[in-house]
Amino acid sequence: MPYDRIPNPFRFWKQDASAALVVFLIALPLNLGIAMASNAPLSAGIISGIVGGIVVGLISGSALSVSGPAAGLTMIVFNAIEVLPSYSVFLTAVVLAGIIQIAFGLAKVGWISLFFPSAVIKGMLAAIGIVIVLKQIPHLLGLDSNDFGEMEFFQKNGENTFSEIFQAFLGIEPGPLIIGLISVAILLLWNWKKVKRLKFFKLLPGPLVVVLIGLLLKIAFDPIPILKIEKAHLVSLPVVNGWATWFAELSTPDWSYLLNTKIWMIAFTLALVASLETLLSVEAIDKIDPEHRQSPKNRELFAQGAGNIVTGFLGGIPISAVVVRSSANLDSGARTKLSAILHGVLLAVCFFLIVNVLNQIPLASLAAILLFTGYKLSRPILYRSYLRLGKNQYRPFFITIIAILLTDLLIGMVIGLAVGLYYILKAHYQTPFSLEQDQEPDSGKQSLIIHLGEIVSFLNKSHFRNFLDQLPSDSKVVIDASHTRYLDQDVLEMIHDFKQTAQERNIRLEMRHLPRYRRTFS
Asked: In the chain, what are the helix, strand and coil shares in percent, each to the nearest 5?
């Protein structure tokens, strides 16, 4: 159901406000981590989060997706900032990328997301769940050397996902570990079926309790040297000294490089990757939406384009819809896009008013929340269900997971799509027809009826040729194309060639509903 059909977007304001608070708390360190990994100013990550929440949220037709700085764009942004003369020139590319995305939306290219098989989309969700869990384990144990929100297998600090976990176990910090374990215990309690029925637990979301308890524990641990939570293990927001100072420091686009071809190449790359990541994220969230709503994809591209134009003018980094935040949004009870908008408002207000309080939140508390979000995306039951579907489904599913784990989201999705398309083509190649066997009532001879499929392409030519060659002699064969919408000229020519050889094998051939055949000569 499209969001437009929801009569009152404020009817679930309590659930949306609660979810917005949780997403806001998760988005804060993610926005900063991605900005840092992109070699951009830290404030650029906050700007992008605000714009992704408010601007994109207001225009978007998706009820649950949340937009902001995306890990999948990190390397593109990093390289662009490195090769361009200044950050202001890079912002010009961001604005142009937004204009290109709006053009994508107006050209209605959102249909491209429909070409990704369900097994690949579900594999992407499962892989992101695993990556989230693996990436949060070090933060849970007190090792915060990698950026919070970083998703790539090979990290900037020279480690990879697994070696980072190994290093974390070698140097466990007692304070963050205790907070992390207590946070996990709270979330387990809040997700216990018997407890979830109680009114108190319905009114107060578990993730919010985790953050509040984390703050209290941090304060309680301060006088104890062995448990004291160091600054490196806390949220780290830049302190703003007044609105006027902040606005004066904002970067703006430098239009003097507008005609530079390098700017346009970077803009197109940003638009293409951000659009693809958005479409995949929205498609993935729609699949796990309990209300089974379908987001309008072209409108989403338009909304993302508008968001990138605004974030470019304000000095932010590019944005897209993001699965991690969107999943946390859904998991926290969000019902409409009001949650995404409110999370943007909270980012804007709190960035100026309570930065010092936010900087006391332990990363271990947020890691526990994300760890639970990751687990829900990658439940064991999902793997069992795909193993039952056969290799044409479970192989693309598992290969997508492995590829994303060992590379990153976009490369893994391309590999998963290639494998998925291979199995689709293979299935199409192997099943261009069905066979029905019968006996003629008069002579008792074997009669074979070949029912051609809806689409028989040149890919089926070799398989169909081998099948015709193996037909028994001295039989009756009927080739029925009554349900065929497309029959390739090569296959039709092969059938008519078989008509000539069939006589030599005493095969009586009957053709039903085949299109008129005109032989071509070279």
From this structure: 65, 10, 30
